[in-house]
Amino acid sequence: MNENFSPTNYLIAGCLALCPVTANASNLAETAHGQAIAKVLSEYGGPDKPALAITLLQDGKVIYENAFGNANLEYKVAATVDTKFQVDSLAWEFIASAILTLEERGQLALTDDIRKYLPQIPDFGKKISINHLLSSTDGLYGYRVMKSLGGWEPKEPERYETILPFIKGQKALNFNPGEAFSPGGDTRLVLLMKIVERVSGQAFDTYMKENIFSPLNMSNTLFLNENSEPVSNVAVPYLAEAKGAYKTTHAGGKAAGPIDLYTTIRDLSLWRAAMSAPAPGKKSLADRLNAPVRLDAGNVVRDISGISTYGQLHAGMERGISKFYRTGNSGGYASSIFHFPEQNVTAIALSSGLAYNGNYAMRIASVVLKNHFTEPETIDYAGIAGAKVRPELLRKYAGNYWNRLRAISAKVHVKDGVLHYSRTEGSDGRAAIPLSDSVFQLKIDGDDKYTIKFVEKKEGRDMHFIMANSDPLVFESYTPVSYSESALAQFAGTFYCKELDSSFVLETRGGLLTARNLRVGTVVFKPITADLFSGNKDFMGSIKFNRGNGNEVTGFQIAVDEVRGLAFTKIPIGDDGTLRHR
To answer: Which pTM was predicted?
Structure first.
């Protein structure tokens, strides 16, 4: 255990030492930074918009904090820096902080088997540690996918007791803990919250209030539980409609789980200010949260889109400098955070009527980072000389590619002698500049460098999709198949999953294969290769059919990142036309 790290003591000391003063629009107006920030935020519009709250910190001090629009459009209630928003996945950082606080106190170790605290979890024959949960390397099924496959109502409370039946029904892990990374699935977050309760002897929301929020005077921050009263002083969530109109949504609610954190921009300023200013002689909690997640073998995980730090943020680059970031959205609410560790600059945006608000946070951060960037805002593709690649080699790379676990298809084609990459059927996609015979850089707006690399195999080839220095997202080349409606009939029938006690009816409609469940609707499938189909809903993004000795279809398996290999068995039909058994 690190004796130089004390989250609770440092949080309190940091808060008392800093007491950051909010810098509002008026007392920044005369500065160059203030004028530049005001210009960015003036684009949001007038008071007839839903709420938007912004904060900007530098060296642990708030240099700008303000709110715009209305917390309630119907009653013209102006938003303030104390207006509450549901912050979706920004809550994950606090869950990780709670675990690290308990570790520092010696009340748990990250190497502990989770069954020490959660004995109801099945013994899969492999130890799943708390560290595996924090690093998304646990191998457990993602409960959201399991809920959909099980035909559960989507707004069911996300509590430990709710997801436990799904975990108990899991017969095998997605992979050996610590040997692979899975960005999807929130099962780990609910389990971490329950471990905090078991170790502390307090409800999670109570523990967070007494140990994290109250010491920092974050009086307007709370995790909901199933018995929580309605949240007061909250921004009503809206969805944008045509011609600038907005309609209210029913986001949030009383579902207790990892996304149910309500907070304000002022409270998040306090949190981030404290993390930037540890007590003398103490290590910053931010250092622990910003540590990269690793596999058990020591490999650092550099996923394209998932978490890559213990604080559940993603590590990346912005115009040549390091950043940590996360964005989230839920039913009208949107949240985003961008933190630049080397410059100690953080920008946060919360809103109640945008699908994405990161552009505002990133642009106000850029105001104070202007002289720190080492690369331009956009890549000068004209300045990339490019390699000469033989036309026959370009034609060789053209074709269809498929990523199995994330159920993503891609297509490469040649147009006017230039290789193009696309994920949308019928789209020209992005032109690719050859850097060598096998590596190409995609022409994409912004400063992010995307490359594709072709790797030859004994059978076919792989295409590696890479963002900056991320681990590659591997696509396999394939030759598409098509089925006539009569041929699709072999996949029709009722398919049953014993673990979930759930079934789907597969049938053909107008040349398409569909799967139907009364509670979760209809999934439409598209054939990829023989017996492999992609679906238009995430929980069935990819399925692979199984066959018996007589080549008959006997069932299918789910093939998505969160649930790998869950089997559905085809139910035989008797001579009288009824299902023989379940």
So the answer is: 0.89
